[in-house]
Specification:
Elements lengths: L3 E4 L2 E4 L4 E7 L7 E8 L6 E6 L7 E2 L7 E6 L4 E6 L8 E9 L16 E2 L3 E6 L1
Parallel strand pairs: 2-11
Antiparallel strand pairs: 1-3, 3-8, 4-5, 4-9, 5-6, 7-8, 9-10, 9-11
Amino acid sequence: QVQLVESGGGLVQAGGSLRLSCAASGRTFNRYAMGWFRQAPGKEREWVAAVSTSSSSPGYADSVKGRFTISRDNAKNTVYLEITSLKSEDTAVYYCAATLTFLGNTYYYTRDDDYRYWGQGTQVTVSS
């Protein structure tokens, strides 16, 4: 089992940047594929980015490509989401998610039900 704690959210002006962090408990973080999702008020939760255990070829939703970067530091049991050129439509609660897989897996996961473990979320608010 793994516990996830997100941090780094806040109120940012449009055009600004943020780095979200998701710290995971446990000793087998490198066996978990990781993802970031977000949920805006009144909307369904949507996938934004994911990274495999091998960190090769991370995936991004079309709406965030070129502005969001996901990365992981297995030594720190942490996955990051760098967000640049923030827009008002990026306002949402951002969730980190994890699913147990295997070392060296190049596949990343994009569906809610692919993930077993979720953090509590961190609020990102973009002001125009």
